[in-house]
Amino acid sequence: MEDKRNEQRKQWWASHPGLEKKPSMKRRKAGHDYYGRCIYMITLVVEGRRQVLGQLCDSDAAHPLPWLQPSPLGHAVLDTWAAIGTHYPQVRSLGIQLMPDHLHGILFVTEHMPQHLGRVVEAFKRFCDKARIALGEPRHESRLWELGFNDTILQREGQLDNMLRYLQQNPYRLWTKRNHPDFFTVQHDVDIMGQTVSVMGNRFLLDHPDRVMVQCSRRLTEQQIAQAVEHFVSLAGDGVVLVSACISPGEKAVMRAAFECGARQIILVENGFSPHWKPGGAQFDACAGGQILLVAPWPHHNERVSITREQCLQLNALASAISQCD
Predict the structure, then answer these.
(1) Is the pTM of this model over 0.85?
(2) How many whole angstroms separate alpha carbon 127 and alpha carbon 275?
(3) Which of 117, 156, 99 is nearest to 278 (CA)?
(4) Residue 49 backbone class (left: φ over 0; alpha: ψ -120 to 50; beta: rest)
(5) Gap between the Cα atoms of 98 and 171, Å rounded
(6) pLDDT tens per residue, range 214-247
(7) N or C: which end of the chain has fewer CB within 10 A?
(8) Would you state the pLDDT for residue 6?
(9) Residue ranges of the chain with per-residue pLDDT less than 50
(10) Burial 30-69 (b: 16+ CB within 10 A, else e)
(11) How far apart are CA 239 and CA 260, in angstroms?
(12) Over the stretch 253-266, which tens digit does the pLDDT of each residue have?
């Protein structure tokens, strides 16, 4: 049934070529079995981004990192999430992180369910609204959660551990973002050599007097890549800002090694920035420390697409312009 609905959607969009498909993280993955055994990270956002689920607190003796103190409604949401398995025995919660205006939770569907994952999430949202009313909020108030939800399908090795770590660090990431707003605000319509781009990170890197482009042929041997790494890491150690689109294996190896050494970098990316996007993992800390600037010449898209040769040429041309402009 789900496959049939996905096919109907595809046919509808194909028959309406004049309509632009609005970017959304809330569409389900076409062809995926949302009834079967799988692990998901679910993201739900409070209607209107109201910060009603809790308060961000600084680190203290009991909490080595900034943390989230749930509100009474936040506690009710946590209790409701913990009870999902009571209503749906095929579903087990592996983790949850409450934030002031949204939540991230990981659900493990242990066996085939009689209902779609979306039905489970919608039921959770209804129970949350009942809890909200039980706490004394007027019935006529707007619903707690926005329509829909975002799911990330966890299939690759190590992905679950990474997501659990992401959940644990989310309050710290929000605290860092609030204390370094300039480095975590997407700036659109930035002009670089006559080209309009979007940027996130330390924009002052564009004004650094010594910028060098990292570009490596795909035909480089492992030995040649190692030599390139040594060369550019040495330049970075002298204070040079490295600029690259990180396309070829050599470019990726150079920028990765330089990043680990704390080098300042301007990184060009094919995909743009969604409204609430922020870098993850080590890039987040690097962004907070002013180490990197991300540059996107094109708008954000949710679809997984392969970068084209023409796009590679455009990114390299822009990297060259950035490394040479005054």
Answers:
(1) no
(2) 29
(3) 99
(4) left
(5) 9
(6) 999 999 999 999 999 999 998 888 778 999 999 9
(7) C
(8) 47
(9) 1-2, 5-6, 9, 12-13, 16-25
(10) eebebbeebbbbbbbbbeeeeebbbebeeeeeeeeebbbe
(11) 15
(12) 999 999 999 899 99
d(CA 166, CA 98): 12
Q: pLDDT at position 145, please?
A: 95
User: The tokens of 168 are what?
Assistant: 């644990």
What is the dotted CATH code of the domain comprising 24-179?
A: 3.30.70.1290
Q: In whole angstroms, give the CA distance from residue 285 to residue 270.
A: 22
Tell me: domain 182-324, CATH 1.20.1290.10, correct?
A: no
- Domain definitions of the chain by residue range: 24-179, 182-324
Which pair of structure tokens corresponds to residue 142? Answer: 């707007």
Residue 1: its pLDDT value, please?
46
Q: Look up residue 66 and give its two tokens.
A: 């900034």
Own/partner contacts of 175-183, CB < 8 Å, gap of 24 or more, are 175/56, 175/58, 175/66, 176/284, 176/285, 176/288, 177/278, 177/288, 178/56, 180/287, 180/288, 183/287, 183/288, 183/290
Angle at 42 between CA 117 and CA 145, to 5 degrees: 90
